[in-house]
Amino acid sequence: MSKFPHIGTTIFTVMSQLSNQYNAINLSQGFPNFPVDERLKDIVARRCREEIHQYMPMAGYGPLVEKIAALTENSYARKVNPATEILVTAGATEAIFATIQSLVNKGEEVIILDPSYDCYEAPILLCNAKPIRITLQPDYTPNWEAIGQAMNRNTRMIITNNPHNPSGRIWTEADFVALEKLLDIYPDVVVLSDEVYEYITFENRHISVNHRPKLWERSVIISSFGKSFHITGWKTGYAIAPEALMAELKKVHQFLVFSVNSIAQYAICDYLDMVQVSELSPFYQQKRDFFRELLGETRFGLLPCEGTYFQTVSYESIAPDDDLSFCKRLVADFGVAAIPLSVFHHTKTDWKHLRFCFAKDTTTLQLAGEKLMLV
Description:
38% of the residues lie in helices and 15% in strands. With 375 residues, it is α/β, with parallel strands linked by helices.
């Protein structure tokens, strides 16, 4: 008997297969198509010739962990203990899985804010716990009244995603104040803060749980080198948590993967000495602005994009189709692949919104824009 009878082929696989079938421009999956920094390639070429091919320490390569602590302090003015509060993980997905498996018990409830990324629910179900799906407001901001009504003595965790995939919205100071007030009422609730796009925000700066001392002792913060340095295939990320929570997280991590790829850890450690994460936002903002300018010549309605490398649009004025059907038609008839947002909703709520990934080279975005002008 299947543990996940309701889970089939992911929408990302479906749309990528359709994109290949119709030789379309694939703006569906969230991966960059431009070259990795040559300096990072050079580091890998040099490092792979060294004898660094055996297991790493379970919690991560020591010098890399130290640099993560320094990066956190430089970015957020927060000091974390490298020995007890940082864990290098096999991507953000492993960090999320290990966090939920280690901290959530049978019968407890975990709040997920929809639309949400698809890796949150499965580990909750494997705990024999209950996912509680709360729909964001139509502008993709948190509905604090609904969240508050959903919380109770069985609530163990709330999963937050900021900057938000798929909408590209970011949290405000008021959102964090609202969260902190709720956690005052429910002192046993833990925050799992998915912040993999933390260094990709635009007009307004990213506010992190790392900025909120009141949340530190009850939060696990997830970051991704794959997203930050557009090396998604490396599947390398990290988690930050207080010692008591991290001790539990490490227990699952050691039996899930034990340790993370050695060459990736050495290479990222070296690369952190020469790269500035502050350069990432301007780099992606240029792509966002270029793509939005192209979309401005189409019939699609532009929604706010405050962070991530995703642009959400409305096609409500173009066609009455449901969003999945419209996406399939967009590939077949116009040669561009996108993601329908209803798949991120447990209830398949259809607001007639699509998500495009603009982490692509200029030529790809230009060609996609020209095709979308014909829709």
